Structures are given as structure tokens and as C-alpha cells.
Records
---
Amino acid sequence: MRSVAGQVFLFQLMIMVLFAAAAGGALVVQARDSSTQEARQLSKGVAQSFARAPGTLAAMKSGRPTELLQPRAEDTRRNTGVDYVVTFDPQGFRWTHPDPKLIGKHIYALREGGAADRPFTKTFEGSLGLAVDTTVPVYDTDGVTIVGFVSVGVTVASVDDVVMDQLPQLLGFAGGALAVAAGGTALVSWRLRRQTRGLDPSEMTRMYEHHDAVLHAVREGVLIIGSDGRLLLANDEARRLLDLPADAEERRVADLGLEPGTAELLGSGRPVTDVVHLAGDRLLAVNVRPVDPDDRPAGSVATLRDTTELRALAGRAEGARKRLGLLYEAGVRIGTTLDVVRTAEELAEVAVPRFADAATVDLLDPILSGAVSAGPGPEMRRVAVHGVDGARSLYPVGELIRFVPTSPVAMSAERGRAVLDADLTASGGWMGAQDPDRARRLLDLGFHSLITVPLQARGVVLGMASFWRSDGVPFGGEDLAFAEELAARAAVAVDNARRYTREHGLAETLQRSLLPSSLPDHSAVEVAHRYLPALEGVGGDWFDVIPLPGARVALVVGDVVGHGLHAAATMGRLRTAVHNFSALDLPPDELLGHLDELVARIDSDEEGERDDESVSGATCLYAIYDPASGLCSLSRSGHPEPALVHPDGTVEFVRVPGSPPLGLGGGEPFETAEVTLPEGSRLVLFTDGLVEDRERGFDTGLQALRHALAHPGRTPEETCRDVLDALLPTRSSDDIALLVARTRLLDRSQVAEWDVPGDPAVVAGIRAEVTGRLRTWGLEEMAFTTELVVSELVTNAIRYGIEPIRLRVLHDRDSLICEVADGSSTSPHLRRAAITDEGGRGLFLVARFAQRWGTRYLARGKVIWTEQSTRSPAGEPEEVSAETLLDQWEDASW
């Protein structure tokens, strides 16, 4: 059915079906009308004959009409061929009927459409179906009284039998006509396929559309050339490209007035691909392909394509591709460091030589220090120069340049957009006003065009970038747009470096202000320290040396997790907290416990504002060294163990029980390690940035540290230099804190100790022995106040404390220290006694005459200590003499 013949056959079939249907319908209508008319005549004649038949009137008037009329009515129906003969009385009750069940039944609508006194015929739907019915009245002998009626009918079903008899003839005629049409269609189809070489209509349509498109719509010239060199076909585009005459077809190609080379190529028929030929002012790419059909002489097909504009577009596309590649390279190469000057140098290096022959970058002075400039000004500092040899004639790096208002730099900074000076020789007025000698040298070197672009980020001008050309074509509009894009990317990198410089400087300043500027000179240790901030961000490392009562000293090293201002500020908080906890004279494990709670609270308070650089824990190593005994107590929380260098150069790492970092321990208790340090040994405390970096593991770093420390007789300063020379990385990614303490021991002559019995009577003797020791030390002028302090502390220990009780007096440089230890953990409290109170004044007097005093708890018991300065001993009260004060206590009562 997709062929033309098939479609014609389908059309003829539809016509035949419609014709047969119309003929059948007409036959049915005609047969129905004829049969109906015959039925009307038949039913009327039978009805009148039956009504006038002898015996009908008598039967109707008799008492048994049904018995007399029913046999006669049935004989009449069978003999005449009618469908029914029905008689009924004037009231409509049947006497006869073909269906005995309906005899005696009433007929309604008896006279619908007709009069009751004369015969009438109608068509109605009766009990036997649709029928033609004639009803005739039967009159009495007087001709007036109706005795009954005779109704005779013929059903329509009987009429349709006539149609059914004629229908086979009609269908036979239609079938014959259809067979003749099918034969004709097959013949036509065979002829069409022979003439179209077997192509179906869809293929013929596709070939026509292709042919039409090639001739009129394709924007590529097409020529079909015969084997004899004659032009058989040329489409519209080929006529336009070659300027062919209207009668070009069927003429030889050599006679069409083409360029000799083009005509020879087209007429040769040899295959070629994209051979460029000149046709007038056009460059044509010619392709030739031979064709060799089976039943025709060989020929060729040539296609022509105008490449004039394509070559120009290809040149522009290549330039755009190079600029895009340069922008991509700029995104990779610019901003590799967070250094403002280096970022400016990278911009100049990227631009030369692929975009410009020389490039300079000038920045406002505040930008170099990380500050924000108030606005673009005429003065800028040159930070980068890169280019050909002639670039040396430009202002050198580091020079502060004041640009004249007419210069492109000043105008670009004022307007906030790039300025193009395509011909410096024609607009050299500003160059002469800026620097005549330098302008002359630049023009002599061949610099002929300039683009100046502001480096601005977040609406703030940071500086200017200038691109110079001395070779090639001058800068144009496309170059201006490219320079703006290149400068915009570089400006973001410069601004990031500026912000980093500012934040790094603030953080480093804050951290150095929070770290100790100098360490105290202590009799217990000789110390040296180093602190090196990370190159890529200040961290939270810190160290400290804190004097403690009893000539002891605390050595602290810690590291806050994270970098930046937040880490530095948190480090300051922790260092302050360590000082405060140290003032309570807590043991190392208890101090770290309090510090752990503080860090956890800090993290909890900042949880809602936490970002990627927020603090999440810290590490700390806390050590207390007692020069009187040489005992060192250490505790650590997530921190590396310290190194101990013995006087002979042997190095070991002190085994200190480890604990999680501060703030992450979940309330677990800390442990303390106690070691006795020989005099002259060096205790080295450090943060992990010293031994661990991106190129070196932690264990490797510890081994390197061991080798750097294994030198006897080195001072702390020399030890710090040795360690940093051996372990300092090229680019440190973490802070480094190093603290070296060389231990000392107090001479035994500087320490006096007594075991005190629990009897107050011994106080006087102990006081006398203390006075004698003070005389040995040359501190006779302090005897009075020292006796007062010793008497009060020992008396309170005997009265309120628990044995054993010990008294220790130390002479440490400018200090005199008294310590009374007992087994009770009850601590005295300073209060102001009322006039009526018998006691409560002794501790007040101790606080009055001692420079400092306090309580230190031990694993078992406590120590009450006082410290007096030997340089400015406490004066005696003016109102009360020393003897009066001592008389308040009787020796016997102690």
C-alpha cells in the first residue's frame, strides 16, 4: 500500500464498496416500497373479500363467532399468503388470530389514524412484528350498524425476503468490478517499478528532496561533470562561487571562463581533497570524486567550499584559544604563595612573552604590609618588572613612583577600568611629563603600545598592572578585554595574599605579645628558649618558666590545635590559666586536670560558632623541679615526652604516662612521673613541630633530636642552636617551641631541716637553732621576724596538725624560705580577729612580716611556707616593739 499502484487500488476498492453499498441501499428501499404497496393492496383485497364473504356477517352475529370464523380466517391466511387475518367485535375484542392465545384479547388504538366507519390501511408494530394492516368494517343488513371488523396484515419481514433474493446478483457484480480493478492496478504497479528501477515512493521523495536541497539550499557548490568534460549539473552555490553563465550546463568545463588551474582540475576527473584554488577574490577548497555507474559512461562529482572567511575565523579562533590557555595558566601559576610581592611577580611572568613584551606591577604601600588602602593615590611602589632587555629602562623594583595625572596609570586608577594607549609615539605627552629621559629611552627601544589595568578586588584598588609591547601589532580591543580578565584573576590572588599577610602579622604579633619576652633568672635552672612561627600561619605553641615557692620552678610547654588568631588567643588564655593554677601550688596532675576542664569548657562555649580553624583541644607538658632535692615531677596531656641529657651526653626520653589532649580526655585522671635529675643535666621540652613535618615522620624526628642533643658540656643556648640547625625544616608548616633547662642543686649549707616532736615545749629550742643558722648565713637582722614566723607556723602545726612535723629553712639568693610540713590536710585561713578573741592573730602577723606565704598540699599532708626577701626585710611595727610581740606567747604554752 506504500506504492502508487497500491494506493490507486485502495482508492478503487473504496469506490466499489461505496457503490455496492449505495446500490444495495437503493435496492432495499425500492424493494421495500414495492413490497409495501403490494402488501397494502393484498391486505386490503383480502380484508374486503373476507368481510363480504358469505357467512361472515352471520358468524359475527352468531353466539359463537370464534368457532365459525377462526377456521375460515386461517384457511384464508394460508391460501392468500397474508401474515394474519384477525376479526374482532366493535369493542375491540378479538374473535380470531393466528396465535390462539391472543383470541379474546382487546386491541387498543383500534382506529388510530383512521375512521371507524370505513376501511383504512396503516403500518404498525403488532404482536407479529412490523406489519402493513388493512381494517374493514362489517355492516349489518341495514348498512348502518357495524357488526365487527376484519383486519388483514402482511409483516415487513416478508418484504425483506425479496431483497435477499436480489442481493447475490448485486454482490457478484461488485466483486467482478473489483477483480478488474485489481488487475489494472497490478499492471500499473509493474510498469511504475520498471520505470523507477524498483524505488518505492518514499525513496523517490527522499531523492527529490535531496536533489532540491543540493540544487538550491546547500551552502556548498556541487558540479556533476560527464566523462567527456561537459558540465551536466551545477547547483545555485556553485554558480555563485564560480560566476557561471546561465547556459553553463551541457558545455565543456574548459569553455566556462574559469581559472586555468581550476578548469583543468575539474575536467581531469582525478580525485582530490580540499585543494585550495583562487577563484576571483575567493579561496575555494575543491574536492573531486569519480563516479562509475554500471550502464553509463564514467564521470565525476566536484564540491566547492568558500574558505576565505573560514581562514580569517580560524585565525581569530586560534588567538582566542591561546588567550584562554594563557588565562588557564594564569589561574595555575598566580597565587601559588601567600606573599604579596611574589604574587605580583607571578602576574608579570605569566604575561611575558605570550601577551606582552614587558610587564610591571605597582602596588599601594599599605597593601604590602597587609593593610587596606584608603583609596587609589598617585603614589605607588613598583614590586615587579619582567620582560625583554628594554624593560630595564622602566622604573626599577622598590622605587616609589608618583604618577602624573595624565598618565594611563593615574587615569586607570581613578576610573577603575583599563586604559589602552595603542600608539605611544602619538601620545607621548604624558611620558614626557612623567620622566622625559626615560620616555625617550622607551621609545628608542621600540615600545609602541601600552595597556594599564587596575588590580582591584572587592571594590578596592590594590595597585596597577601595565603591559608593554615593542614587537608585533599594537594592542587592540580584544587585548584590552583579555588584560582586564588577567588582572581580575591576579587581583584576587594579591588580595588573598594581602589578607593573609595582615592576619599572619596580627596573629604573630598577638602570639609574641602573649609569650614571655624574657624568662626569669632562677637559681634552680639555667634556661634558653626558641619560638619559630609557621610560615603558613601562626599556631598556638607556647612555653613558660614559672617560679614556685620553695625555690622550685615550673617548666611548661604547650600546643593549641589549629592556626590563626583564634589559636593564638586561646594560647594566651591557657598560658594565663597555667599561671593562675601554678599560683595555687598544685601538683602537675591536678593542674592538668583543671586545665583539661577549662579547654573543654572553651570548646563547649564555642561549639555554635565553630569553623574549620576553631580550637578543638590542646597539648601540654608541665614539670616541677625542686633544686633542694633534685626531684622533678612531670605530667603530660597529649604532648611529646621530654628529652633528658645527662652530664656525660647520654640522651634519654623521660617516660611520662600519656593522656589524651586537653579537652578530649573526658575527665580521665592524669598521672605524674617523678625522676631525680643530676646536677648539670639538661631537660629539653619541645612541641611536635620540631620533630615532625610533611617530609619526616615523628620517630625519625626523635632520632634526629637524640643525635643533636648527644653532646656533653653544652649550654642551653648552644643546645638550642644545635637542635634548630639539625632539625629546622626549610618551610615549617607548624610552630616550633623549644625550651632547654640545665638543672642546679642548692648547696647543702643553704638548707636546714628539723624533725619537730609534737610537744609545744620544743618550740623555743627550734627557734634558737633557726636564729643560729641565720647568724651563720649572715642574716642576723632577719632573726626577729623569722623567729616570729617559725614560732607561729610550728606552734600551729603542733596544735592543729598531725605528725610527722618537719621544719625546713632555705637560703636561696635573695630569699629566705621557711616551710613547715605535717600530716594534716587542714589549711589555715587568714582572718581578722575581734578584740575579745583569744587567738587568730598569729597568721595575720605572719602575713604582715612575710613577703609571701601559702599552702602546698602533698600526697599525705601539707606544707605551710613563707618567703622573706633578704634585700628589704619586713619592718617592725611602729606601735608595738618586738619584745612586746614575743611576750604574747609563753614558751611553756607552745
Note: The longest strand covers residues 552-563.
---
Amino acid sequence: MKNVILLAILFFSISNFAQIKGTVTDEKGNPLPFVSIFEEGTYRGTTSNEQGQYQLQVKEIGRNKIVFQYLGFKTQKITVSAESKTIILDVKMQEESFALNEVVIDPKNNPANAIIKSAIANRKENSEKTARFTADFYSKGILKVKDLPKKILGQKIDLGPDLSSNLDSTGTGILYLSETISKVSYQKPDKLKETIIASKISGNNKGFSYNTAALSTYDFYDNTLEFDVNLISPIAGNAFSYYKYKLEGSFYDDNKQQIYKIKVTPKRDKEPVFEGYIYIVDDSFAIYAIDFDIKGYRMKNEFTEVMNLKQSFSYNTKNKIWSKNAQTLSFSAGGFGIKFSGQFNYVYSNYEFPETFAKKIFGNEIVAFDLNANKKDDSYWNEIRPIPLTLEESADYTKKDSLQTIRKSKKYTDSIDAKNNKFRIIDFLRGYDYKNTFEKYSFKYEGLLNLTSLSFNTVQGFNLDSGFSFKKWNEETGKSTSISTTFNYGFSDQRFRAIGEFSHRFNAINYATISASGGTKTAQFNSTEPITKFVNSISSLFFKDNYMKLYNLEFVQINYAQDIANGINLNAKVAYEQRKPLFNTTDYSFFKRDDIYSSNNPLAPDDFSTPAFSQHHLMKANVNFRINFGNKYISRPDGRYNFKDEKYPTVFLAFEKAFAASEKNYDFERIGAAVQYDLKLDNKGLLGMNFKAGKFFNAENISFIDYRHFNGNQTHIGTTDRYLNVFNLMPYYTNSTNDSYFEMHLEHNDMGFVTNKIPLINLLKSTMNLGFHSLAIPDRKPYTEFTVGLDNLGFGKFKLFRIDYVHSYQGGIQQNGVVFGLKILNVLN
């Protein structure tokens, strides 16, 4: 019954609207894109599309004054009489003649500076006028690819049949097209509640768009605007340290208010700054419009060539508020010969500005979808869509939507799968993938020569992995089940090892997952695996260094994980473990063949006969909690998507107990906690923090395996983006403990705040890292490290390297070293 009433209300409200539509051009007949169009005295508005076409809903049928506002052209106000439900109104706009009095511009008397200073002085007052609002919101996003090559670095590009069919013979076409209609409540600085009423994705009638109002909240009244780095607003409190201004003229809008056009240019090219034009209203010094370019290198995103941000504001004579009615964000990007472009249009209408909001308006749920948001038909969209589709967009919807039924059919998916599932004799060696798209399951065989798994260590020598995996999933319910086996063979110890795993996820709401695994494998004494297989292989084969210390682990374990409350995740594990010591079985290396590897005993690297521990078994139980305070989330019919609130830290709590051991002295308990937090310092960078602490109980004689080991690094190679969980010069096991411990990691990335201002260094477009790391354990002098280095180093678009100088100190022993960061190893591992 409720649905019938809501449908009747919707039909009644739509039937009382008239639609004004047409095309906006210049005097030569050229279409004008993104013209701001609104009904005078209201917050009902829209913009024209790339072809100059627009459509505007007016509620009260009669004599309506429609305002057409476009940068560089005279604002027009046209009165129309609604004689039918649809009114055709084509408009030709005249170029604005900017007036600029003859003035002598010098550094001491620049009229643009005076205007900007007034805009800065009135920034807080103007921002407060739109600090709280509700509005209707529309968004449209489109992503295109151009000149997609057939191969990259010799590898064939496979986008899949659905995406590939969207491209023409030159590798050009639309990859993504989506729209949303929603209602938004917003309170500065960051409180948002959005209910998406309608969602549409080209070629996917089950899809829920990712376009949300959260992506449109760029506010130039703030000191900084968040992109990949924080960019300085041209009317920020410190704007004159970053920008130069030039008054290019002024004009009067339809309300007889004088508007200043000011050109904004950076003082230094590599700074996080905008470039373009800002339009300021006289007297109130509010923002009238924005038209800025953002160079990719200025926001530390080398793959983005340029991004353009346009905003237009409309004035309401009743409440005297300038409010943003439209925003366009477009960009061009590329790499490896591929060129991408994208454009996102946003329209705000039907504003209301309450003095306060009810307390329950804003909560942890920031976006919710109506149950049938993705079920709206074409007639609904044609009636309510504020920006008409272009011919290209209409063609894309028509083509993809018509093909959708075919592509989802069993006959079509089976035919595509049959083509890709063909088995060849060589697949015995290189691996084989089988997929049933319609039934939603897949099978994978890794191959006998899985060279990507090839590694070397002194216990196994060269070793390879192979295995099988099976997965079945349900996109609507979020359920998934996977079964896999991994086989490993060491050529030096001539030993075959295997493990099996089973995992089942029950849903995509609380992500309840149960898993079981078991088998035998080689394991590092430090279970967090501080040295990767790839780096260890290079260290051993080229430099005759043996850092990876291994033991044989036979185990069976069961895991269960679930979000038990908003922002609180539980992970519990029970395991039986049989541990056996291992010894070196090879002395092979490419170089330094006369040298001898250290032993596999981390406690005695020169002792080749004494094991680090005696063979034993035990049971282990672990309970871990991850707490994200203020956790935000998006609720969709197909799942819940969590977003950490960056204002708060993440807290980790752990309890570990070993019991039923082969010898009583191996039993113990341990509690642990960690706090991780990123403190954003506006344009001055990011301070990352990671604090860890813990305490063992009844652990005087436990196995060395169960000690608390800390992530050292003796290879001088960094493999992570940030060094917030590693000591870059500390040996891997010299500070392991079975008592209490406290470790602290601090790392500040200036995001270019300092390096952008240093001649020659700024040509690198790099960032500077300052780090401090400390470890405290009983009966031992503290270990400390200081680091300074450059990040975001590389060639052209590929900034995959960093370099750090490290100074360490412990008990009078000092070390100095250089660590080379190779972030590409994240991919290889």
C-alpha cells in the first residue's frame, strides 16, 4: 500500500511540472556546453550538455523567468509562459564585454590583490551561508579510452568481451557511463547523508553507480582541497605565498552586481596549486564561478595530464545566498600508449538552508540506495534527468542495454567461455583457467612450470609452486566459496610439500567468513615474513647472504572473521601446529662461490649443527579485533562498503594462547595492542604513526618461534610504499623477545611542501620523508633509527622509487646506511 501511495504522489508531482528544453548557442550558432540555467528566485536549475542542449523542470506553471548564465557571455533572463507541459526555448548568448579601467598595475598597487584580500577576509562569512543545506542532486559520469594498443610491453591486452565490444577498430570508445538522482543533506565540514533514488549504469541493469555527492564537495572557501594531495585554494589564508593575480575585467550580472574576472597563476610551477580564473562578486566578495586547470604533476599524479574543474554559483534574491548549482570535473590521463578521458557533471537544485539539523540526520551511513533505485525505466529518466544525453551517450545506452540481455544469457556466456576455455597440451606446463560465467564458478591450474613462483633459499634450494583452485560466487548475495591446494617442491632438499585451503563468505553485509586450512610448508620464524622470497633470492644468489630463516610447519587451523559491529572486526583462529627444525641443504650461488652461507639457526648463524629449537607440537588460539572509530559506510542492496573515518585512529587488540603443547613450558599467553593513525597537515604533508605494545605471560621457556619478532631489514632494499612497520637497519632476530615490548614508527611525507621550493630538487617532482623508529624491550638498550629521504622518484610517469639515508643507534653501536625503495616489488610479490 505504501508503494502505491508513493507512486501516486510521484506521478502527481511530475504531472504538475512543466519542462523547458532547448539548445544554447553563441551568436555564430556554436553550441555552448555547461551553461548554468535556473529559474529566477528558486534553486531549480540545470546545465547544458556538450552539445548545448538542456532541459529544466519548472514547478509553478505560469510566467517563469529563466536565467542563462555562462562565463564569458552576458547573462540572459527570459520570461516564458507555460502553454503546454513542454516548452521549446532556444537561446543565443552574446559575448560579455569586460570593462577594465585604465590603471597602472605595479606590485604595490595591484587591484586584483585588493579583491582577493577582500575575498579572503569575507571567506568565513560566505562559507557559513552554505554551511548547512539539503538539495536534490544529479550526477553523470563518463569514462572513455582512446587509441588502446593491442599489446603493452609485449603482453596482449584483454578487457574481456563486454568491454572490448564497446571499442571501435582504433581502440576508442566509452568504458563507463552512469547517472544518479539523489537527495542530499550536508553540513560543513564533512557531514553527509545521501539517499540515491535512481541509479543507472549503461549496460548493467543490476548495477549501482559509484557516483555520489561526496565526490563533488570541493569547497574553495576552505584553505585546501583534497585531491591526491591537498591543493591550495586561491583564496586560502596563505594564498599570496602561492599565487599571482591579475584583474582581467569586470561585468554586471542580471542582478546588477559587479563581477570581477581574475586570472590566477602559480608563483612556482611544482607547487600543489590551481591555474585559471576565479570570478568574485563585488561587495559580498563571494565566489561567482571557478574555472581552474590542475596539472597532474602538481598533485603528484603523473598519469593524469590535466584536470579541469568548473563551478558556477547562482544568486537567490530572497535569502541573498550564492550557492553552487553546477560543477564539472573533466580530466585526461594516460600511460603505456593508452589515453583516457573522463567527465563528471553535478547539478544541485531545490536548496534549503536550515539553521540546524536534527541530531539523527547524520550518522555513520553516508549513502543509502532505495531498494528499486536501479529499476527506473527510460520514461522516468527522460522526465527527471536535468542534463540531456548527448548523441554519443544515447547511442551507448541503447547499444549496451540492448546487448545486455544477450550477454547475460547462457548461450552467449557459454560461447565466450568455450572460446577462452580451450585446453592446449602446453597448458600442462604453463597453467590453465576454466570459467563458467553463467553458473558463476571458475577453476584454475597453476601449471608445472609456474615460473612466477620460482624462488631460492638455502634450505630448499630452488623451489617451485603449483596447484589447483576452485571458486564459486553469487554477486547479488555476496556469497563466495573457494577451495585451493598449493604444491611446493624443493630441488635441493628433494622434498614435496602441500597445503589445502577452504573458505566460505556468507554475505557482503558483515562479511562473515569461515575458513580452514592444513598441510605442511616451510615457514619463516617471523610469521609476518619481513623478507620476501624475491628479495631473499636476489640476496642469496648474487651476494651470498642468507637472511630467510625457515622451519618446517605441519598444521591444521580454522578461522572465523566477521564485522560484529560498525567499525569492529573480529578475527579468531584455532590451530594445531607441529614444528620441526630445518638445516641448509645447498651452498649454491651465482657469485662468491668460495664464501659460506650463514646457518639456518637465527640464534647462532655460525652453528651449522645445533637447531634453533627442539621438535614439538602445540595448540594455538588467537583472537584479534580491529576497531575503526567513526567508521562510515555505504549501504547498497548488494552489500555494505566501509570507509575509515580519517579523523580517528585504527586500534588493534590481540590475545594469543598456546596450550596442549608436547612440553608444558611451551604454553604461554600474550596480549597485544596497536594504534595506527595518519595525521593530515593540510598542504604540509602527512604524518603517519604506528604504535605497538604487548606482554607475554608464563613464557620463560617457550619456543623461539613464538617469541615476538620485529620486522628488520638487512638487504638495504625497501619493498613497501611507507616504512611504518619496519626497522631499516635492524637485524631480523637480534631483538626478539618473550617479555614485554613497545615499538614506535613515525614517518612524515611532506607531499612536496619543502621539496617543491628547493631549486633543482623541485625538478624531480619528489617528496621528502622524515622518519623516526624506536623499539624498547626489557634488559636491553633501546633501538632507534632516524631516516631522511626522497620519495616519488622515477622516470616520466613512473615514480616507483625512493631512497633513504638511515642512522641507527643501540647501546653505543651506531650504524649508517642507505635503503633503496623499490615499490614495484609490491606487484612482483
Note: Residues 277 and 786 are 44 Å apart (CA to CA).
---
Amino acid sequence: MRIRTRRSAAVGITLLTALALLPSVGAGAAPRDARPSGGGLHATIRYTEYGIPHILAEDYANLGFGTGWAQAADQVCTLADGYLTVRGERSRHFGPDASPGSALSSASTNLGSDLYFRGVREAGTVEKLLAQPAPAGPGRRTKELMRGFAAGYNAWLKQNRITDPACAKADWVRPISALDVARQGFAVQVLGGQGRGIDGITAAAPPTAPPSGATPREDAPDPRRTAKAARELFSAQNADMGSNAVAFSGVTTANGKGLLLGNPHYPWQGGRRFWQSQQTIPGELNVSGASLLGTSVVNIGFNKDVAWSHTVATGVTLNLHQLTLDPADPTAYLVDGKSRKMMKRTVTVPVKGGAPVTRTQWWTRYGPVVTGLGAQLPLPWSSTTAYALNDPNAVNLRGSDTDLGFGTARSTAGILKSLRETQGLPWVNTVAADRHGHSLLSQSQVLPHITDDLAQRCSTPLGKVTYPASGVAVLDGSRGACALGSDKDAVQPGIFGPSRMPTLKDAPYAENSNDSAWLTNADQPITGYERIFGTIGTQRSMRTRGAVEDVAAMAEKGDLTVRDLQRQQFANRVPAADLAAADAAKACAALPGGTATGSDGKAVDVSKACNALAHWDHRMDSDSRGALLFDRFWRKLTAAVPNAQLWKVPFTAADPVRTPNTLDTALPGFRTALADAVTELTAAGIAVDAPLGDNQYVVRNGKRIPVSGGTESLGVWNKVEADWDKAKGYTEVVHGSSHIQAVGWNSGRCPEARTLLSYSQSANPNSPHYSDQTSLYGKERWVTSRFCEKDVLGDPELEVVRVRERR
């Protein structure tokens, strides 16, 4: 239960009397999977506005307990669904053909998901990683947090009734073990590697022998088509996760201290949502921020001295090895002329309403055999060739150690120290600022150690095309000399060490919007890194161009405060419109008879659209008129016309922020896109100058909440991707701005922070915190963070919950 208390009450600031704890998991021991965790753990949870818990505990196991309890209270159904996934039990409950969702993998069906995760489970993959001593494996604090998290989740299940209709009576909501928590962490670590290829891993099968006398069919992938598919697969333009983040150094701020604005773009539903909390162990840890669901640490956030956020990085976290198969056996491959047998991993999955399904997966010294990275990138297994996927994050369970290091850091130097010592982040950049006035960007991520020289020497014909185009290396697996290299400062073989990571320290601003590290600061480009980290001197996305324009202007203006960060978050400026809208309006007005021909060959009256474009404010505010028209027009135009043909002035690396520019309105695709956009709006009953918020909104408990922001191709900082309903316009948001934080410092001990969780704390429609912050987001209002004790106690609606296991 929750205990409401007044400010004057003693609300349990001193910790509860310590209870006897179960024996801790040793640094080299893996938690047992035999039974759910338990052992007399306890914590105090103080809830402030919007259901944000401030978790107070005496050690890491008890802190994990309070975190697991509080997450279960808000997100029990989403968490339980994730544990069902990593146990490989979705087909048993939901059938084999349903979609598992994209939260923990790219699997297209429950069966594919179960085959992969059951394979991980039966191979003891996570247990082996837990057993490795730090720094190669996770440290004691992380293991204690996982143990406590599982116990807290289980205690909440035992002591409370589930009211979320998504799983209120579900038989698949069950107690968990610390190993389940670790397995979910593993799934997150490999999202950019094995997680991309699950269908190709679980469906891989050796070729069958052709009929007697027939010639074997060899379907080698087309290099150019594969390179194009790889480039699209790893492009931020097509990702369901992204982010903006900027750190300002003290030379730009009003008081000489640093500032940080973090704006991650993540899914609004499912297991990759963020959840807010403050975690405190007196004298040891005090950190506030957001955690991915199921994570027992704060992933992005701040403490009294430093703040950080992450952006999805361009580093390619996997590579392929092209195998030359033994002519006598398609399940054996040659290395330096010697035949090596593939390893079989036979997995059986129980299926609802049917017989269990048994499949065999094939593994090599390089990793699993894979027959594709999505449907667009086939890698056929023939009688002569197969492909193996190398993912160094499949042996990396150190991410939480990195996060704990951030939580106890006292400066950006401390952030770098944690990155250097733990090397746990799989697929993100880190952007940070501190109260001392320092700024930082570091692309410190776990990547295959593939240098441009190695790629030059060892790429197969396919790799010679895919590596320059996308950073996906395809190496000759038949030569031992083509094995991945290692750095002396790397904690695991086959990855780059900290000294090789693109890093910028103490620049006036350090910004990233999911392009490579090159243009972190337009005046101090970062160069000298290998292609696998990202490109150098190439065209930036519209979002990066707009972001660099904005933050460079802010830095030049100077005297920045947290309020400036808040304004930037909801400026909703459309960089694409500043480049193209005026020319589009003029060209529209010049069309003969005010008509344009659509893709269906019909003439469309676009005269009202010309006027709407001319008078639009070039913003994606809820009350902006003409914004929806330009959005639908721009989506259609950029989908139909290659980027190289769109602009009259081409890209130049000498002016990467302002080029390319000048829309070529003479292109036939221009008139077609304009006509189709008008037709689309008319069919939906939407006026071309309708306010954006009338048709871009979410509905929560029957209430419509208008949402500002715009899509990737428009370049809007406040990114929003929503489903288009041809009868209503945009409705449900799929992904976009999520846990937003604007953090600075003043002369006091407490950080000055404003936060906002766009989709709110709870997925339960019966929770008071199902849509409260979503309403704030729609109104572009913020939550003032309560970090220091006086601020927590100062909340007039403070609620205190003392939670413990019941034996």
C-alpha cells in the first residue's frame, strides 16, 4: 500500500532496520535458474508528481528490489511479456505465427523468436557471461541489482492484484529469476547484431542435394543490390530508434557551468519504453533519470555533478564471414585448407494447439550461420558458400556496469573513465556535460575490430561493395589471416579499445542526431576513425543539419540557461521547409490553371494548397496551419525522387550544414507529390490549412491529446512518427521523443533539471499515470525534477511506500 504523508512527517528518510539477506551472488558465480529469487529484501519508495519513484535502499540488492517492485507496479504486463520472450515461450501461449513485436528482436514470428531465445537459453550463453569475472563480465553490483530486481518484481506479483487489462488474468505472468533479468539485458545488448538476423539464424538450413545428374543451383547475392539493402538497413532514416542530444560547455552558458539536452527517440509502446526513477544508496549512489523497462540501472540521467544522454550510433555492431564450404559436406567449412565441422544446436519449441516444433541452428567459430538480415538482404546458403554472423555484443553483458559508473561519476572525465574501464555500451554514443563546464561526446561502443586495412585485404567481392556503402564487412572466412584484430586496451578480444573511439572534449557544443561523429561540432570535425564507426565527409541527414544550425546559433549567442534548452526541444522548426517550402509555394502558384496531375493520372486543383504553403509558419506546432500538407507532400516527394536529383545545389563537404539546397521544382515528381498530398487530405476530409493538432494526436482513455513534432525527413528536433489513418490523419504515435531531459547547475548543490516522459510512466489505462505526462507533452510543459531531499519532501502530494518481501 501507499502511505500518504505530510511534509512535516518523518517519512522514513532513515533506512529501515536491515533484515537478514540471502547470500550474495559471488563475482564469478551465475545466479541459479532453479527457482525465483528471494531473501528478505526491502526498500523505501517515495512517489512525487506524475508517479516518479525515488527509491531509497541500503545496498545494491535492496535498491534492485525497490526498482523491480516499482517497475512492476507501473509496467507489469510489458515486463512479463518481455520475460516470456527471452524464455522462448511465446508460441506456447500466443501461437507460432503471431508477431512478437520488435522490442527485443527483429523476429517476424513468435516461432522465430522462441527458436532463437530457447537456443540462447539451452546453450547457457548468459550463464557463461555472468560467470566471467569483471571487467570481461558484469561486476558484483550489477549482479546484486539483478538479484534484487527479480525479487522485487516477484514480491509485487505476490502482494498485489494486476489491474492492467493487457494481462490481468493471463497465465503467462509468472515469477522470474535473476537469470531472466540478465537474459533480457542480453537481448538488448544484441539488438544491433544477432537481434537483426534472428529469422536468418533460425531458418538457416544446409542445401538439399539436387536430383541425380542435375547441376547444383548457386544463388549468390547480387553485390550492388545487397549493398543498397545494407545501407538502408543500417540507416537512421529507417530505424525505430534514434535520438538528439547536445552538451554545451561553460563558455556558452550564463554561469560557466555545463548544460545538457537529451531527446531520445524510442518506441511509444512495448518493451523499449523508458521509465523514470531516482535511485539512492546513501553515501554510495544518487542518480535520477530513465531506464529501459526491465533494466535495473538508470540508463540516461544525471546526478548532482554530471548529466548524460545517448544517441543511437552509426557504428555497425556486426560483420559477416563468407564461408567456403567443404565440397564433401555443406555443414563443414574450410579455414586455411582444413575442414571444420559446424556445430549443431537443436531446439524444440512448444506450440499452442499443435505439436512441438524442432529446428536445428548451425554455429561456426565466427558465430551462427545466417541466411539473411531481413527479407531485403538475403544471404543464401549454397553448396559452396554460407555466411556466418559475428556479433561481439553476444559476449558483452557489461552495459549495466557502464551505467553504474555514470551514476557515480563526478564529471565528464568520470563518464570517460566508466566507458574506458567497462566498455559495455553496444549501439549508442554518449553525450555529457557537468557542473564544472565540460562537454563531451564519445562514440564508445562495442564494435568488431575491422580496420579499413583489414577490409581492404580480406573483403570478399560482396564485402568490397557492402563495406564502403554501409560499413557491413564481409570477410573471407577461409583465411586465418583474416581474423579480427584486437587492441591492447580492449577488455575482450576482437573489439576496438577506448583509445580508438571518436571523442570530442570541451567543445562549445557537442551534438549528435544519429549521424556519424564527424560533424559533432561543425567547427571541430572529428576524423581519423575507421569506416565501421561511420562515414566522414558525407551528406548529413536533415535532422542533423537542422540541429547543428540550431545549437551552433545557441552557442554563438551565449548566456545559455536550462530555459534555452526547453525552448529548443519544442521549437518544432522544420529545416526542410526553410530550404524548400517557399520555392514549393511559388512553383505551385505558377502551375497552369492551378492544377497538377496525380500518380493516378487525374488532374487535381491545388490552388488552395499553394496559399497554405505560402502562409505556413514552417513549424510543426499543434496550431500550425499548412504543416500537415507539407508533411504529406514532403514524404511523397522524397520517397519518389532520389536525393541526388532533389536539389539544384549538390552536397559539398566544405559546407555540410547548408548543402544540398534549392529544391528543383521542375521535376515531374514535384507536381505529382503535390497533387497526391492534396488528394490524400481531401479523401480524409482534412482542409489543406487545417491545424496540425486536429489531425496529429493520440487518444488516452477517450481523450484526444494533440501532439506537435514531425517526421525524420522533415528534420524536426522534436521527432514524432505516427500511424496515418486515411480517414482521420495521424493518430497513434509509433515512436519519437520519449524521456526528455534539460539539465544544468547553479551555485547550489542540487542540479537544475526539467524532464518529460512523453508517454507517461504506466501502460495500464487504469493507472493515474497512464497519460498525465502525455498531456504535459501535448501542452509542451515540463516536470521540475525533485533531486535533493528538500525537494522530494517538499512535494505536497508525497506518498511513501515501504516495501519488503513476505516469507
Note: The chain has a mean pLDDT of 93.
